[in-house]
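Researcher: Here's a chain I'd like modeled. Treat it as a single chain, no partners, no ligands.
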Amino acid sequence: MSDTVAAPSRQELVRRSEQVVPLLRKNAAWQEQHRRLHDETIEALADAGVFRLRVPARYGGYEVDTRTLNDVMVQLGRGDGAAAWTASVWTIPGWMVGMFPDEVQDEVYSTPNVRVCGTLSPAGTGTPTDSGLVVNGRWSFISGALHSHWQQIVVMAPTPDGKAQWPVAALVPMSDLTVVDDWYTSGLAGSGSVTTVATNVFVPNARIMPLPLVLQGQTASVGNAALPMYRNPLLGVANASSMGTVVGLATAAREVFFERLGKRPITYTEYAHQAEAPVTHLQVAAAVMKIDQAEFHAGRATELVDAKGASGEPWTLEERARTRADMGAVCELGRAAVDILSRASGGSSIYSAAPMQRIVRDMHAVALHALMVPETNFELYGRILCGLEPNTAYI
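Model: Modeled as a single isolated chain. Structure tokens:
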């Protein structure tokens, strides 16, 4: 266990992440080509403290709130969507480590700048033994697996009474898993979201948690039980942790567009400068307003998570569903803003060297994540508003 350290202020952490933006932009094309983050990127994120954001302070982490986390991810998203997405994903299973028994945390957090990848999909099975489970499974879309030390997996295993099956989360060293290099995609290519496979991997009982308890925020940790960071349900935390990448990508599109605006005419018109055209005024106003709206939803979600964590007040069902809806709104608005700015950028923006085309593809990839699809999240929120029960456990 590390000695507790004083966490940098929100402003300082945002400043550090902002300083990484030029490097992320420089490495973005390499990362897309090689389908993984550059080692230089990993080092820069570590130096900025990104891997310590959601680690308990007693392990040398910063234990920041989700507003701070969101603000940092916005900056990283300005630099490269794949890097920001991967960093945000690492914060979620990394946070989940803190729900396991303290002895497990001692083991996982003993690695400096530890990175834990993961999934919530129960794509494996667990066979009980006297002291744990033997797991077999195959998990896809594991962002950051190539640079991770551990993976949080989910398998179906017998309930304690042996009469049924339920999903359990388990922590497994990456050295126990096989990586399948299958990440050939149109977006977020640099995230290295490969498939991992477990073949007869033994997981001791201490590193196993029932997923329904994790989803409800019921921790097995003595040391973390009273920490505001752990007095929230998993999906509320995950939603608040993921929105910054989307806002950052939309902000990047805005910046890229305005950097080129003064140099571009509108071909086959009399406008020698695109900035003089009324159509441009309508486009940029619409896009920037959508980014502003996305920031509102991200801010509302992070404010709720942080307030509930500070007070310890229970979440209502409507609040849980609303964070999913806020997530959907951020994705819908961010994607719409990027599409407007992309269309306004002209044919030259489709060249591989132009950042806009990668921003578009990364944004569309993010919005296809099963927990971020706007329509799915809006439907769930609407069900709750209409007095119906949720049709998912992921709330």
